[in-house]
Specification:
2 domains; mainly alpha; 14 helices; globular; about 300 residues
């Protein structure tokens, strides 16, 4: 079965630029067909197209984000295929986001009053502009002519910081949909929220695996201390996952406390993601992962 899957995933149809067109063509067709059924003369209609284009883009971001880590944690035919096509998957995300940018500019340019009164938030603009700037730079440097302009270290810094920024931007949207806004979340919000968290979790697991492998060659700590670190790490990770599941139960109190300080509210108006409340459980999970990695078990 594994050999058959391996051969199947080597097919030219689902690799390289053929894969790009296989993914982006149906997305573009779906968006164009939806445009014919939506009232684009209204701001609400354009806003719905922005939402649709994002939903078409996000899965490819999460797959590109998790590609290298999946190969470390679960090596196999699929993870090798995904890693081999990571650049193409990333370009599929970029192509879908090009649709979103088109509709955003449409909304701003044609429905300016609606945008200013009902949509505009300075920190969101900073997040979005920075995200698109990073995405465009990542796309250009995915090709030889762009990559030649950067040193290997600069290229790596750009793509690591860029993919994390884009992941944070996308994933936090679904956190707010689930745990902050009053309007009820829909199924796809849950799918993308947990899918994004899983993608990040794979990166964390890959880091732990590498750390523990390196530690195995070093002198181990005493057995009791080793076990204590490991168990403590598991408990801390479990607490973080619980916090990730129950954001609506604790985040209102945290926001109320933080915004009791005037300086926090002032910074929030222009600082992207501040005060980072959606990421508190992730910080807890990271602490637990560090303890597990230190256990050297």
């Amino acid at each position: 079965m594994s050999a058959y899957l391996n051969e199947l995933l080597k097919s030219k149809v689902i690799n390289g630029w053929n894969l790009f067109w296989l993914i982006t063509a149906p997305i573009s067709i779906a968006i164009v067909l939806t445009m014919t059924r939506v009232d684009l003369s209204s701001a609400e209609g354009v806003s719905s197209m922005i939402q649709l284009s994002v939903r078409c883009a996000v899965p490819w971001l999460f797959l590109a984000f998790a590609a290298s880590s999946l190969q470390v944690v679960f090596p196999g035919p699929f993870s090798r295929w995904l890693l081999r096509n990571r650049k193409i998957i990333g370009l599929c995300f970029a192509a879908s986001m090009a649709w979103q940018l088109t509709f955003i500019l449409w909304l701003v340019g044609i429905h300016t009053e609606y945008y200013v009164n009902d949509v505009y938030v300075l920190s969101d603009v900073v997040e979005g502009v920075a995200g698109y700037a990073l995405l465009i730079a990542m796309v250009l440097t995915s090709f030889k002519f762009g990559r030649s302009l950067l040193s290997p270290r600069q290229w790596k810094l750009l793509h690591i910081s860029g993919i994390y920024w884009l992941w944070v931007y996308a994933w936090s949207v679904y956190w707010f949909n689930l745990f902050y806004y009053e309007s009820p979340a829909v199924l796809i919000d849950y799918v993308y929220y947990w899918g994004g968290l899983l993608a990040w979790g794979l990166r964390m697991m890959a880091w732990m695996k590498k750390q523990r492998k390196q530690s195995a060659a070093q002198t181990k700590t005493a057995g009791t201390s080793n076990l204590l670190l490991y168990v403590s790490g598991i408990v801390v990770v479990a607490i973080g996952l619980t916090g990730s599941s129950l954001g609506a139960a604790w985040s209102p109190q945290v926001y109320e406390f933080l915004f009791g300080f005037g300086v926090v509210e002032s910074i929030d108006t222009f600082m992207p993601y501040f005060p980072l409340v959606p990421f508190y459980p992730i910080f807890i999970i990271m602490s637990g992962a560090f303890l597990i990695a230190r256990s050297r078990g």
